[in-house]
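Let us work through a complete example step by step.
Step 1: write down the sequence.
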Amino acid sequence: MRIDFSLNNSEYDCRFVVNDSRGSREFFIFAPNKSMNVNSTYIGLEVYSSDFEITVVPITPKMEISSEEGEKRSLFDRVLTKTAESLASEILKIILRVSSRYRVTNARDNDRIKLNYRTYVHGGKSAFSSELIPMMYVFFEAEDKNGRLKPEEAYGINRREVIKFARNWSLFEGVDLGAFGLFLTYPFQLGRIQYLSKRKRVFKKLKKLYLMNDEQRQSFFEKQEEFFVNL
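Step 2: predict the structure and record it as tokens.
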């Protein structure tokens, strides 16, 4: 049977694995081109059982700084662009990309599975106002004709990279505060990121979001959106 998968309002490409009665197969869906006012992209696949699992993983986007003049830019402008792209890529290393596994049951021909892009920042505004290293998850929620699917598993696929970035950040911050500041800041900041990026902690957070009712979810994500708008 044919199942359509849609990737909605995503800043990231998506790698996903379908595991059905014929085994596992890997596919990719590219993020919508928002510059062309496209909010969703689709892919149709043959699935060989009514019950199957999908695992969805955000893929880090390639950071590109656009320019209307293209190749006519000066060498100085091109160097600035490369510097901006490099900086943006470094900043992305603090974001934990979460692999999420869901189980689809009683699927029928021409059903559609929606993959909805989500972000979550621990502490929101307070994390930045208190000068904490931000801990942010990006992930996809899955939804079929019956509503949101319960996550069966979730974990950060780039945890080592996130912890390494946090280690460098906290060292730099601690040195700026002096030896005493380093002694206090480094273990706390690094320990916090290590804790919040643990497999068990990430899975617990996604399950908590799943269990929220519609009113709670709307309020939660509105606060998250407000944080990014005012950042």
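Step 3: interpret the result. The chain has a mean pLDDT of 82.
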